[in-house]
Amino acid sequence: MLLPKNSHILYSGDEAGFLSKLQELWKPYEDEKAKVILEHLGGAESLLDLGCGPGQLLKRLTGKVSRLVGVDESEEMLENAARNCPSAELVRTKAENMEFREEFDVVVTSQMLHEVKQFGAAGQMDVVLRDIWDALKPGGRYFLLDHLDPGEGKVTIRLRQDDALLREFVRKFRYRRVQLIKLGPNLYEMEKRDLQDFVTKTWALRSPMEEMEMEETHAAFNEEETKEIVRGAGFSPGSFITLTNMGKDLEDHGMELQREPPWDRKFLLISSKT
User: Fold this and answer.
1) Is the pLDDT assigned to residue 125 strictly greater than 60?
2) Are residues 143 and 159 in the same domain?
3) Are residue 38 and residue 87 in the same domain, yes or no?
4) Tell me, what's the pLDDT at 8?
5) Could you tell me the residue range of the domain that residue 71 belongs to?
6) 185 dihedral zone (left: phi>0; alpha: psi -120 to 50; beta)
7) Nearest Cα residue to 195 out of 125, 257, 266, 261
8) Residue 61 lies in a domain
């Protein structure tokens, strides 16, 4: 399966090289993701990781699932995946060009569908979901893991360090205008969505990933919207599981919420092909 000529590839070249250096930083999140997926795999014997990147999930599922297949459009990402999971079958193609037919018990997209939503052409998400449907066996399941929209509302945060990084993010973030209000010494008010984007995107500042990350949001899907998306593709949505609490992100950034507890910023929706 080949890529179309002149197709734009996310995470290639310098971007892929930079991301490969962050795997240790993201290890706790990758471990958590694999744990929740393993808890719900049941007796699955075949799994397709669509948008597998450097193969971190495939590596963690090795020995748990008989047949593991990773698909990605980036040659550099697949080279890393081959090192991380030598036993997996790896295919270079775009999600909307897959040619699998009723081969898998489970298809996973992990933090991939939001990129289709935000950077894809009109109708591309429908095509991707149709290809996922085609790849699944009758009765197979689609595991959609992605960024959860915390919804509207403002929060008050206290910083234990200077605000230089926060103000750099406010200047550079282009997906929407960030309203940062100073309430007092080291005390600020901002939208929940903006705070979530800040603590999940600072790694990209001053890097090859900065331009793309500042053009997208990590507050991408809410529960009802996501269920409607999969229903529209013919799936029956089931369990909706939240994960990845913001507490660690806030601690890493020297921040404290003043009036409410941290929230979960990711979700896993498990849907069935019926």
Assistant:
1) yes
2) no
3) yes
4) 52
5) 14-148+220-246+263-273
6) beta
7) 257
8) yes
* Confidence (pLDDT) at 168: 98
Contacts of 200 (CB under 8 A, 6+ apart): 147, 218, 249, 265
Kindly state whether residue 257 falls inside one of the protein's structural domains.
no
Assess whether 98 and 165 both reside in one domain.
Answer: no
The answer on pLDDT for 21 being more than 80 is: no
Q: How many CA atoms lie within 13 A of 243 on its CB side?
A: 21
Split into its structural domains, the chain has a count of: 2
pLDDT at 85: 94
Q: Provide the 10 A C-beta neighbour count for residue 135.
A: 24
CA gap 116, 131 in Å, rounded: 13
Q: Please check whether residues 236 and 179 belong to one and the same domain.
A: no
Residue 105 sits in the same domain as residue 22: yes
Residue at 8 is within a domain: no
Give burial (CB, 10 Å; 0-12/13-18/19+) of 185.
Answer: exposed
Kind and range of the H or E element at 251? helix 247-252
Model confidence at 12, pLDDT cuts 50, 70, 90, reads low
Statement to judge: residues 65 and 173 lie in one domain:
no
Looking at the structure, do residues 104 and 67 belong to the same domain, yes or no?
yes
Each residue of 58-86: pLDDT tens digit?
999 999 999 999 999 999 999 999 999 99
- Burial of residue 265, with CB atoms counted within 10 A of its CB: 0-12 exposed, 13-18 middle, 19 or more buried: buried
Task: Determine the Cα–Cα distance for residues 262 and 271; give it in Å rounded to an integer.
Answer: 27
Do residues 88 and 169 both lie within one domain?
no
pTM for the model stands at 0.92
Closest C-alpha among 102, 3, 117, 108 to residue 53: 108
Report yes or no on 6 lying in a domain.
no
pLDDT of 2 above 90: no
Q: Which of 131, 99, 101, 138 is nearest to 113 (CA)?
A: 131
Q: From CA 146, how far away is CA 156, in angstroms rounded?
A: 25
